[in-house]
């Protein structure tokens, strides 16, 4: 061994990624350890969603998570390469162009479809076990519909519009469910009657979804059949030829689309490694007593007999170590391990949990800790029947319909959060709900419709303009005129709070004014305060019919009172307030006076907020700085929104200020539109006829490369480093 211990993970699927993350967590702080992940692609493929890509529900990007996104802030090095073989004696992985040495190796290369040696299947069927498979099938489906649209020969047309799915396991059923949804979209696009399209699931067993309780099997079957999917049970496929799937009794189904989902085996790559393969304990062979389903071609052993496979999965012990080399671990679909006499199923939970065991044990060896044996902890199976329904058996509970599909989404979200954080969850929500096309989500297109950027353009300009008006009004009212005694030291603060930097004399006058119960100044102050508080929103309303001006009116009144330096101003404010209050009493009020504050200044939440934040924190700021800050923040928000420059941040600041004003008891109902308009602006409104259309891509590129973005995985789109 060199000074550095090299851990190489081959295969960045569910197992490999989980192992790399755990190894980084356990050993990442040790500079003497290198962790490298090698995969043929620079991204992890979310295999469980491949059928959605193949059948056009979501875009291909939705099943890709770049390793950069997952490992950007870790010490896991990523290499994109296809390893051809492994020399276990030399401890070397060999690709066409490079060799990679290792001290510990974790193999998680997954599986590939098994055709059981049936003639013509591999040549004529579409498989669905990789990103490329899904893209090829997606393109093919589009092509056959396009061709069928202009095909006049009924025989050929029927061939084009017949889709045969071989196998009614969860992959086959998910594909059939997705195809039925896709049929609606394709038929609409190519002007084809839906009844002309046949989707046929062909299964050798007498039931579908063998891993689910029979009630759920039945429900899934009925759901699909009611929607025009034909399910042929007890119909073993004997082979395929160009344009035809061959069944027993010399019958066949003419089709141009034959999708094979029947079985999987270990990868040929793994099968060729000089490691012991799994032993077949096949008890219920699906096809004949002389053919195994374990991945051994032309097996001549009777079901139940042990055989050493020529190809297939790699035999491991309870620590997930290869039985041949203690420094080689195998996880996921590639591993062969018998637990309680049953071979581990090739599912995501197996991949994740075997990876956890293997990563723990590699770390234990390096840290001289105890190794742990593998114990599975499966939670259940969820199967989608298209976008709108599903069946699931989770922790002993059977679910159907939107509950089943809902739980599948939830589990996916939790998984993605653990893999790549909140960013990936957001991507998932976008792909599955917010950007989904043709209403293909269980909430339909409810969340998917998008407003184009030019519609909110005028609103953006108006919102920006209003903030500029607000800031300008404050300036003309003397907010920045510190020498003339017009500035608003009391704004948003409780009476009696001394803000940093307020001159003793002036403040003394102000305090005296607010505290002396019978004095004229006091009554002016309190009247004006009351005015701003309740009825006086009316004063505000009088002052301005535009929503924004109301705020400045209110704050002007309150400020005038607490300032209390100019008795004339105070009494003017007080009489105005009294007058308005009188008016308010005279006439019956409306059901909701929209000029009234949303939160009354006398309410507990407002006094708490004012005391905690305004009096408690901001009062430490020199009042001059505070007022300059408020005025310029408003001005900047306004200009930014107007120009569409960093609109997202300006909108957040705008909403933030409105919330502060509301909690300070100074924001009226008729100003609430500020908040809702701000929310709309956050959706990229600055990129339509705004500077953001140039700056946002640059900003994203910069941000995505920062350490903080990588550490928090809070990327805007894809990381740049
Ligand atoms: C359509 C479909 C639907 C499925 N639905 C479900 C489901 O609903 N629930 C469920 O639990 N399971 C489901 N599965 C099964 C599940 O996806 C697998 O069990 C799981 O992906 C296994 O994880 P893994 O890490 O072992 O391998 P994989 O996720 O397959 O990853 C293997 C990785 O190894 C890489 N690799 C392979 N060979 C090499 C090489 N020579 N050099 C470099 N890299 C290599 C590959 O590029 C790949 O990234 C589904 C599978 C499919 C295909």
Task: Describe the protein in words.
A hairpin with a 2-residue loop joins strand 23 and strand 24 (342-343). The protein starts with a strand and ends in a 9-residue tail after the last helix. It is built from 23 helices and 27 strands. Mean pLDDT is 85; it is low at 283-310 and 504-578. Strands 5-2-1-9-21 form a 5-stranded parallel sheet. Helix 1 runs parallel beside helix 10 (348-367). The chain is an alpha/beta fold and 721 residues long. Helix content is 44%, strand content 14%. Residues 10-16, 38-41, 45, 47-48, 50-51, 82-83, 108-110, 128-129, 170-171, 267, 269, 332-334, 346-349, 351 line the site of flavin-adenine dinucleotide. Flavin-adenine dinucleotide binds next to helix 1, strand 2, helix 2, helix 7 and helix 10.
């Amino acid at each position: 061994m060199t000074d550095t211990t090299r851990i190489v993970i081959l295969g960045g699927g569910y197992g490999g990624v989980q192992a790399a993350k755990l190894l980084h967590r356990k050993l990442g702080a040790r500079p003497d350890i290198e962790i490298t992940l090698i995969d043929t692609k620079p991204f992890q493929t979310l295999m469980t969603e491949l059928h959605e890509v193949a059948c056009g529900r979501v875009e291909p990007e939705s099943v890709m998570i770049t390793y950069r996104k997952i490992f950007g802030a870790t010490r896991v090095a990523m290499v994109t390469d296809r390893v051809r073989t492994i020399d276990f004696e030399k401890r070397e992985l060999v690709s066409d162009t490079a060799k990679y040495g290792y001290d510990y190796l974790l193999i998680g290369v997954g599986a590939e479809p098994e055709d059981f040696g049936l003639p013509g299947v591999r040549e004529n069927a579409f498989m669905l076990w990789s990103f490329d498979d899904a893209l090829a099938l997606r393109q093919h489906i589009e092509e056959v519909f396009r061709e069928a649209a202009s095909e006049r020969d009924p025989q050929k047309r029927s061939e084009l519009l017949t889709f045969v799915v071989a196998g009614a396991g969860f992959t086959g059923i998910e594909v059939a469910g997705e195809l039925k949804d896709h049929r609606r979209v394709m038929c609409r696009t190519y002007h084809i009657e839906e009844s002309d399209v046949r989707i046929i699931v062909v299964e050798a067993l007498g039931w579908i979804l063998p891993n689910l309780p029979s009630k759920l099997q039945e429900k899934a079957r009925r759901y699909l059949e009611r929607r025009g999917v034909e399910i042929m049970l007890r119909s073993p496929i004997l082979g395929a030829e160009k344009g035809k799937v061959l069944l027993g009794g010399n019958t066949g189904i003419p089709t141009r689309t034959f999708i094979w989902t029947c079985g999987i085996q270990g990868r040929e790559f793994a099968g060729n490694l000089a490691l012991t393969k799994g032993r077949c304990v096949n008890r219920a062979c699906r096809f004949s007593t002389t053919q195994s389903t374990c991945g051994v071609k032309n097996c001549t052993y009777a079901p139940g007999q042990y055989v050493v496979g020529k190809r297939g999965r790699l035999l491991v012990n309870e620590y997930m170590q290869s039985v041949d080399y203690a420094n080689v671990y195998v996880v996921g679909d590639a591993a062969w391990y018998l637990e309680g006499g049953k071979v581990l199923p090739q599912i995501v939970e197996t991949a994740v949990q075997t990876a956890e065991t293997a990563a723990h044990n590699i770390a234990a060896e390096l840290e001289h800790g105890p190794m742990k044996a593998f114990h599975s902890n499966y939670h259940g199976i969820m199967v989608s029947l298209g976008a709108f329904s599903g069946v699931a058996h989770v922790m002993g509970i059977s679910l159907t319909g939107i509950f089943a599909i809902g739980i599948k989404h939830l589990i996916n979200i939790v998984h993605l959060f653990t893999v790549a954080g909140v960013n990936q969850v957001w991507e998932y929500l976008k792909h599955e709900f917010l950007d989904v096309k043709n209403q293909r989500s269980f909430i339909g297109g409810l969340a998917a419709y998008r407003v184009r950027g030019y519609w909110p353009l005028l609103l953006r300009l108006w919102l920006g303009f209003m903030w500029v008006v607000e800031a300008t009004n404050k300036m003309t009212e003397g907010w920045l005129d510190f020498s003339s005694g017009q500035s608003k030291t009391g704004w948003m603060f409780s009476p009696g709070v001394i803000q940093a930097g307020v001159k003793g004399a002036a403040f003394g006058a102000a305090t005296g004014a607010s505290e002396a119960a019978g004095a004229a100044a006091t009554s002016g102050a309190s009247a004006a305060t009351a005015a701003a508080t309740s009825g006086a929103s009316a004063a505000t309303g009088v002052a301005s019919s535009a929503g924004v001006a109301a705020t400045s009116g209110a704050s002007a009144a309150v400020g005038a009172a607490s300032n209390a330096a100019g008795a004339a101003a105070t009494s003017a404010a007080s009489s105005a307030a009294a007058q308005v209050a009188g008016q308010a009493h005279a006439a019956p009020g409306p059901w909701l006076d929209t000029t009234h504050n949303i939160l009354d200044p006398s309410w507990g939440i407002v006094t708490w907020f004012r005391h905690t934040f305004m009096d408690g924190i901001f009062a430490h700021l020199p009042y001059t700085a505070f007022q300059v800050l408020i005025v310029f923040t408003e001005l900047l928000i306004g200009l930014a929104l107007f120009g569409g420059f960093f609109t997202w941040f300006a909108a957040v600041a705008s909403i933030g200020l409105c919330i502060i004003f509301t909690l300070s008891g100074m924001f009226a109902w008729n100003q609430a539109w500020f908040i809702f308009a701000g929310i709309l602006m956050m959706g990229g409104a600055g990129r339509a006829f705004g500077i953001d259309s140039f700056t946002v891509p640059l900003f994203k590129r910069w941000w995505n490369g920062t350490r903080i973005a990588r550490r928090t995985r809070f990327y805007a789109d894809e990381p740049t480093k």
